[in-house]
Amino acid sequence: MIILKIGGSILTNKDSKTSEVDAVSLKRIASEIKKSLDSSDKELIIVHGAGSFGHPPAKKHRIGEDFDKSQYPIKRLGFCEIQNEVKKLNMYICEEFIKQGIPTIAIPASSFITAANKRITNGNLDLFKNYLHKGFVPVIYGDVVLDDDLEFCVISGDQIIQYLAVNLNPEKVILGTDVDGVYNKNPKTHDDALFFDKFSSLKDLDTLEGTTNVDVTGGMVGKIKELLYLADLGIESKIINAEVEDNIFKVLENKKVKGTVISRGN
Ligand code: ADP
Which range marks the domain in which residue 161 is found? Predict the structure, then answer.
């Protein structure tokens, strides 16, 4: 089983304040996944980020922050708005995947996952297993969920990756984003950033700058934290650049691709 995440930075124009799908990238990535499914049998789960569909409304409604009881109805409506926005992005993605022949089935986190203090505590994955056994490709994405402590919270695609990997024990965990992997500082704002082939500790980062864009779920640092948790359990993951043509296909086919392996080993 392979768990593949496609970052919101690839599928949407994440710097934008409005929801925009990057249709060209979406088409190319769908075709790379299809090519790989055609070339060999594999169980594949896709996770995608929320990008410009999720982050601006999540920021606007301050979901995940403490609020006064009197604000409950307005917060609840904000929750609904975010859920609907990320569902729209998912719909565009699934539409393109299905068009290209990928047997895609959307399983939204808001429909079966709950959290406590912004961390997933419950989410029965039997349905995932069932769909996988029948040859479907389940798709799940960054979403809003009910939170036992905060009423509502946002969970990132990166946290979902971690939850799925811990519970499903995949052979491979791959994250496609818009940079080659992890550097000691943000490569988009620092020309002298140094690239890591392997990454094993947050101490190796010079700065804890999250991301270049409006990200409410932690950007690169949030991603790394989730993956280091997996590394502690002995589950290795790899961050690659999904903007480079054929990288997704190659990584699915075990071919060599530049990227950062997150592991605690040497
Ligand atoms: P995605 O939406 O693909 O999951 P994010 O936007 O959350 O990705 O995170 C990727 C971004 O993180 C990159 O575009 C980069 O600008 C930023 N970033 C910040 N710090 C680093 C770092 N140390 N190494 C690599 N990228 C970093």
Answer: 2-262
